[in-house]
Design goal:
Largest sheet: 8 strands, parallel
Strand order of the largest sheet: 10-9-6-2-1-13-12-11
Helix content: 25-40%
Number of strands: 32
Strand content: 15-25%
Radius of gyration: 26 Å
Length: 640
């Protein structure tokens, strides 16, 4: 791992994605150094630290293919001008564009800003940009296109590797949108470009730049993590499955960026940066609500071991007539600043958060404590299951990590195996390894969707009687769980069970076991007969509205013994709490209100802990905290 502010554990950076305020994607063709200088000064004055910038591919490598008889390729030129016999010329790079990028670097350095450079910017805001000579070629698989990409990388990175303003090299903006590729082709392309960057500059991290990563897709977090140093998320609710269901200032949506970033980081084995985030304009949220949203996201990403937040994007683009702004309405009202550079409330929140970080008595945040591993299996919607499991865990008061069944099984005291689906589920060898952990004392939680697991009764303590399409939707009552919550009878199928050695904690309407616990060696196995996580994945309002099912009580019950090891406990499901061990022997408590309503809760101290000096907000002697809507307190406890 290259040592960098971007990848340093516990380091959190705030920034934005930048196109010049007067020109958007035409900033290099319509270069105005004074406008760029004024933009950067305003952004630096607002406390931003990093700008993600984009050398638009056809502006920087404006090569054209010349043909001879029979359509045979002859050579590449700059229009009619032969490529210069220089390092940059042989790479087809424009000397004018390279000089303008150098000016940008110098202006950033003058203003104390760092630049994360999106190298192969061929996709931007819904438009594909390619050098004229490469039109019609797939930039991810075509050997001619890749040859010129490598020349671009080698020359561009070689030219700017000595500039102190550059903090990292991004493969490019969402390059997985530039063309189609199989998983193998995507991995080879990523490795090829990443290694070319490292050959030109081994001192800075290589950043993925990709979004929409999925264990079952062509572009996966595991593959990106294998070849790059830093993963990234672009968590827009409108474009992410299952995220566009609730208001942006409520629990599901304010946890979206954090859940997806942890999903990528854990499955990819690399740190993760929230590289693009925003509300996509006033049709999604007012300026005031957008500010509440980003305040919550800032604290949540910081508290959960993510590496920063970059807003999309710096300036409004509603005055621009060229594509993609002429095509796409959603690209026009996304700025931190208005056309006159006056700040929107979102920018005020980012500024305030940066000042808060600067005032802390430590430079880096220690990692949060976690109690559980959520193991994602074959045949299921891994992101949907992971997302809901993450939110339920936060509601219950615990923190989890993710792993996939084809990866090594992490050590944990609690394993969550939610929504078993399909015929394969997980390999026998992984199942046996997991059961060995339970036999040694770990706790296992399993919920069933339509899966057909093997070796069921000896582990769960239930003998399946019959399986059928679910016809009955009477609520399930969990009489053996605190609060005696009821859960919806959800899922496509139902299995009727008879208890053998399991203790029944909840039943279906006809008395059939629905939630049980059974001993297994020195450990325990909890079983839930409905895929409650998938219910929340697909049901709007199911986390935050009045009368929503209190499914989080299942997670709290399963993790009760482990939660006793925390310094504090909370009650309100909208309050997310992380704990961090400080070098001083104290423990940091970050409590975030993910609700658009003010919240009062009591943080009960475990025996042996006392309150210390708070760092943000306050706490009563009895642990009472009063939190405004979408806000946070940062507290300290010490051994008493």
């Amino acid at each position: 791992m290259v040592d960098s502010d971007l990848t340093q554990p516990g380091r959190f950076l705030v920034g934005c994605n930048y196109w010049a305020s007067h020109a958007g994607t035409r900033m290099w063709a319509d270069w105005d150094a004074q406008v760029v200088a004024d933009d950067l000064k305003a952004l630096a004055d607002a406390g931003l630290q990093v700008l993600r910038v984009f050398p638009l591919w056809p502006d920087f490598q404006p090569i054209e293919q010349l043909y001879g008889g029979g359509g045979n390729r002859v050579e590449f030129r700059w229009g009619e001008v032969p490529l210069a016999d220089t390092r940059l010329g042989r790479a087809g790079l424009s000397l004018v564009a390279m000089d303008r990028f150098g000016q940008l670097c110098d202006l950033a350095q003058e203003n104390g800003l760092r630049l994360l450079v999106g190298l192969l910017t061929g996709w931007m805001s819904g438009r594909l940009y390619m050098p004229p000579g490469l039109h019609g070629r797939n930039p991810l698989t075509d050997p001619v296109a890749i040859e010129w990409e490598l020349r671009f990388i080698r020359a561009f990175v070689g030219r700017f590797r000595s500039h102190p303003a550059v903090v990292g090299w991004d493969l490019g903006n969402e390059c997985n949108c530039m063309g189609s590729a199989s998983r193998e082709q995507a991995a080879v392309w990523t490795a090829t470009i990443a290694n070319a960057i490292r050959c030109a500059d081994s001192s800075r991290p290589v950043v993925s730049g990709m979004h929409s990563l999925s264990p079952g897709g062509a572009w996966t977090a595991a593959d990106q993590g294998e070849w790059t140093d830093l993963l990234c998320t672009h968590p827009y609710p409108v474009f992410t499955p299952h995220a566009d269901q609730d208001p942006v200032n409520t629990l599901r949506t304010t946890l979206h960026g954090t859940a997806e970033s942890r999903f990528y980081a854990d499955l990819g084995g690399q740190p993760c940066l929230c590289q693009e985030i925003g509300t996509l304009g006033p049709m999604i949220a007012s300026e005031a609500i957008a500010a509440d949203f980003i305040r919550t996201c800032l604290f949540s990403l910081w508290a959960n071991d993510c590496h920063g937040l970059f807003w999309w994007c710096a300036h409004e683009q509603s005055h621009l007539a060229h594509a993609p702004y002429d095509w796409c309405a959603v690209e026009r009202e996304l700025g931190l600043m208005r056309l006159d550079r006056s700040p929107k409330p979102v920018l005020g929140e980012i500024t305030a958060f940066r000042r808060f970080l600067d005032g802390l008595p430590f430079a880096t945040l220690p990692p949060r404590t976690t109690e559980a591993v959520c193991l994602l299996t074959q045949g299921q919607d891994q992101w949907g299951v992971a997302y809901s499991s993450y939110v339920l865990a936060k509601q219950a008061g615990l923190d989890l990590r993710f792993a996939y069944v084809d990866q090594p099984l992490p050590e944990a005291s609690l394993y969550l195996l939610p929504c078993l689906s399909g015929l394969n589920i997980l390999p026998r060898r992984r199942w046996q390894e997991l059961l060995a952990r339970v036999d040694e004392g770990a706790t296992l939680y399993v919920s069933l969707a339509d899966g057909l697991p093997a070796g069921f009764e000896p582990v769960v303590g239930l003998e399946p009687q019959s399986r059928e399409r679910r016809r009955e939707f009477e609520p399930i009552t969990l009489s053996g769980v605190s609060g005696e919550p009821t859960l919806p009878a959800c899922g496509s199928h139902r299995v009727r069970h008879r208890a053998t050695h399991a203790q029944v904690l909840g039943t279906e309407a006809d008395g059939s076991p629905a939630f049980t616990v059974a001993g297994y060696g020195r450990g325990r196995v909890f079983y839930l007969n409905v895929p409650i996580e998938l219910y929340h994945t697909s049901t709007p309002g199911s986390f935050h509205t009045e009368g929503a099912p209190e499914s989080w009580r299942v997670y709290r019950h399963v993790a009760a013994d482990l939660l006793a090891g925390r310094a504090v406990s909370k009650s309100a499901p909208a309050l997310a709490v992380t704990e961090h061990d400080l070098a001083s022997g104290e423990r940091l408590i970050i409590a975030i209100n993910h609700s658009p309503e003010a919240l009062v809760d009591r943080l009960a101290l475990s025996p042996g802990w006392v309150w210390s000096e708070p760092l943000r907000g306050s706490v009563g002697a009895d642990g009472t905290v009063v939190l405004p809507a979408n806000d946070a307190v940062v507290l300290r406890v010490k051994r008493g």
